[in-house]
Amino acid sequence: MSAFHQVVFTGRLRPGINAEQAARDFAAVFKLPEEKAWRLILDAREHVLKREVDDANAERYREVLEEIGLEVRIEPAGTPVGTAAPAQDQPAAQRPLSGATGAEPDGVGTRAQQPAPEPDPGNPYAPPQAELTQPLSDEGPMAGPQSLPAGHGWLWIKDAYALFRGKPFVWMGVYLVINTMSLVLNWIPLGSLVWFFIAPILAGGVMAGARQFDRQGVARVGMVFDGFSERGGQLALIAVFYLVGILLAALALGLVVAAGLAVSGTSLELMMEDNPAALPAMMGAAWVLLLVLVFFALIVPLVMAYWFAPALVMLEGLDALPAMQASFRACWLNIMPFLVFGLAVLGLSLVFAVVMSVAVGIPVAIASGAASLFNGSVLGFAAATPFGLLAFVIGLALILAAVAIMSLAQYTGYRDIFRHAG
């Protein structure tokens, strides 16, 4: 079997899909003229949309195209496609194909393929013969950032889950190491500051590991430390710029607070002596609202500049400051996908909370019942302990899985925005 695959549009749309809407969505996602997308769908014949792509990219194209509403299949690169005319009892864009694959189902027999007619160069309505999209390129210069449709915010999560599902225990192991390091360092004096500077280095290692797994299917827990040996200086410099930004934001917020107290007639001494929780009342509602707006106006751009920076430093070889600038621009160009992403994360968080409470609550309830049954005796402790441990393991696994998927979404977002050339 070929190591590469081709993505074939069967000429049919999925049930219930409107052909006109599918054409608009196809054109928007793959940056094509709507007329070209519309001709492809009306043609109702098989077309190879992508040639010679690997497993991961083939599946990615399948997911995107099926979400648009096209019926597609993945097959070895170079496989001939059928060209039989559509039946007459269905709309043109949804007619079934005859002889599409060249073989009857269940091995009944084979049928000869009809050669595709030569395209007429003078016919403006001839179906497109070339590939409609550029490959998901991991080679060559960076192809972004580009602006994407809002629905891609959900695709980042789906793609992140697909990566996680390929090696779930490896990814959970990675984030077990990361979270353990965070806990240990935060117990040590100045450890939280050390963690602040090594966090982007660890993130860079994860991004490199995600790309290696995406390309080659290889993943290992030790990937998390790869950033120290390759781009550690520039990755740590991201933290320096981020810290400078936080300090400037804190200074601006302090100035707003001082101005609000001055306008309200509250002295600094009174503020220090009084309950800090009463600060909003001292400043007044208008100044509190201004403080909140200034906070978001300063912090959100900082987060935008940080979001893709480790990936861009580690995978694209950018220095820290250009990487943060490119990250900010990528987020700015994709406000709508990030809005969808944020709403999806919020919804999934609610689902996660329910699943977590049920999955952990059941063994905890059993453990409590066992302890009560034996009145807190040694026997009751022995009966309850396995269920308590089970609750701990389930809870830890769910948390690590959720954190891993959300972190991998940074990689899939980077790949979509910077490496999915339209």
Structural account:
With 422 residues, this protein is mainly α. Among the domains are: 1-76, Ribosomal protein L7/L12, C-terminal domain/Adaptor protein ClpS (Ribosomal Protein L30, Chain: A); 190-335, no CATH class. The chain has 15 helices and 3 strands. The protein has helices at 19-29, 34-43, 55-68, 152-166, 168-187, 191-216, 226-230, 232-264, 268-273, 279-283, 285-307, 309-316, 320-333, 335-373, 378-419; strands spanning 5-13, 47-53, 70-76. It has a 3-stranded antiparallel beta sheet with strand order 2-1-3. Helix 1 crosses helix 2, helix 4 packs across helix 14 (335-373) and helix 8 (232-264) runs antiparallel to helix 11. The longest helix is centred in the C-terminal third of the chain and has 42 residues, at 378-419. The chain starts with a strand and ends with a helix. Residues 83-138 have low confidence and may be disordered.
